[in-house]
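Protocol step 6 of 9: fold each sequence in the batch and record its structure tokens directly after the sequence line. For illustration, a two-sequence batch is reproduced in full.

Sequence one:
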Amino acid sequence: MFVFVTQAQETTRLDRLIAFPDKLNRSLQEQQQKVQVGLDRQTERYFQKLLRQEKRIKRKLGKSDSSLAASINLGSDSLYQSYLQLARDPGQTIISGSNVYSGRMDSMATALKFMQQQQLLKGLNADQYKQLVGQYGKLNGQLTQTEQLRQLVQQRKALLKEKLQGLPVGRAFTRYKKQAIYYQQQLNEYKAALENPAIMERKALEVLSKVPAFRKYFDRFSQLGSMFRLPGQLDDQDPATLIAGLQTRQSVLADLTNRLGGSVNTQQAVASGLQQGQSQLSSLKEQLNRVLQNGESTDLPGFTPNQQKTKKFIQRIEVGTNHQSTRANGYFPTTSDLGLSLGYKLNNKSVIGVGASYKVGWGESIRKVRITHEGMGIRTFIDMKLKGSFWVSGGGEWNYRTRFESLTILKTFNQWQQSALLGVQKRYRVSKARGTASLLYDFLWQQQIPRTQPLLFRIGYQFK
């Protein structure tokens, strides 16, 4: 069965999506303010760290080259204060030519212009339209600001590298470069946040993308369309103009022939030079791929930045659940352990955390079902990535394995049994969550009274 959607129906859907322009405007303002507050706070924090490292470098230089320190304002409070003043004003142009392209801003600005011209925004007055366009302009200014700050730090780092080369600054400059890398990593996270569209924006663009008139309008009048000739525009342009000004291999060879002559030696020299150039490019490409695969920084080879360091505390928390069942024996009925854990990501390859579990009893068999409180436990754990989707998991546990009726058992901690666990964990994807399957060995199982099983198999889920 096919469903045909008319342009009138699409227009109705657009009216529904943009029925609350004030709500969209407030949402954009909140995002802008949130990003600006975070950007200002983190910029001041990292600038203070960079300043401290510069002062350490200055002290290391001592009196050996005071003129150099003065010429580059090494460790200058006034220099970083001027940087902060520029950083706090999104309208300031710190570095010329640092404007960046934003797919989100371009798409929404073009969409608003199109809908306004086509009179598709029936519930939107002129003031509301100007406010929305202005908000996207401010967000785009913040995006440009993050790029300007990134280039500012990059240029400062390059200047210090050039001037301090060969001088006895050692680890101080290495620490400076690490702080600069983390600040640039933080800026990339703010850029990603600014590029993340709201649900209303995604829905509006999804509807508009089905309108042929909008696709043609976007190809012609969007910022992307002004930079590149998109496929929809090729029908109204001479293909010969698409490569105007670009040098081809034939044109380069012809120019060399005119200058050096058309002898065999000339052609061999050109071929040899091309081969050497290709060999050097291949070598550089292999080095770059090796650095990127290892997660190393291209600015500081051998240093792998901690990707979690620039994230907020809440973003580094993992919420997990686990489940474990034990068959009935002479001492205990059939039980299930239901656990909840909170993990904190130290980095991308290690997590520490705490958890708690509740042991529910189901009775002796399917014919004798009886729900009872059979115990509870608390634990600490650390997970470290081994290889691929396999992790090493270990930790300590304290379990109360006696049936109880109230939480007064928490006062009798000396009656809790201890476990020392170590094993392997397999992580896999389950829809939006991450499933875990753990096989753990309890090194203290023989000390338990009554004895428990030495191997534990647990199934769990982790949520970010």
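Sequence two, same batch, same settings:
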Amino acid sequence: MQVYISVDMEGVAGVVHVDQTRRTGADYERARRWMTYEANAAVTGAFEGGATSVLVNDSHGDMRNLLLDELDPRAEIVTGSLKPLSMVQGIAPGFGCALFVGYHAGAGSRAGILDHTFFGRVVARCRVGGRDFNETAINAAVCGALGIPVALVTGDQTVCAQAREILGEVETVQVKEAITRYAARSLSPVAARERVREGAARAVRRAREGAFSPFRPALPLDLEIDFVNSACADAAELVPFTERRSGTACGYRAPDAATVVQVIEAWTILAASTMV
């Protein structure tokens, strides 16, 4: 079975502050090492569970965070940006399941470490079909359109709960308990890696047994984003077929999940250009 792994940073054990997640931060180098080692734990677990090959996508920020010299050599890596499918670039028919490692709660969540959806500086809330959708849901829908189920989500207790609510039968591994947006009770990085390894092995074994179903929300997909201010919405409205729904909200009727990702990318890049 081919296994796909998307790795973010905010949900990694020990990470609680933007100083750890931004390249300019004093603690960034340490956090990217924790991220790399949790990715390795997922790779190891995937092979233990029966994977024949593993593709890892660096899904955080500028998507050049994983330390490639320290990445498990059995895995291939998708690195850098822009990527047309962003956090699930490289997903394709033939993969048996996807694992989402180091994920975080969606924008506007309570007790979610560094909660946001795609670009927190400009996105206040994201909905699809009138329902709050976080990155787990949107990326799972892209995978689901190709017939690929998400088998594992790891992070804090809030993203794990959101994953179960959205995806139903999915393995989750909680590596920390968010207290507020910037504080958590966390496993040590070493202990977290062991939990992730075990969870990945269990998830892949279950995927091989057909335990998970692809996430396929009904089409078309009505995307709506509340931006942090009207200037962001002004910029997003430049994308053709965007519907301005209020002073700060834009909507888009997308034919599929891949289009949702691309519209969000275009909107947020344009919106970010207005930030001063």
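Proceed to step 7 once all outputs are recorded. Observation for sequence two: The CA atoms of residues 230 and 248 lie 5 Å apart.
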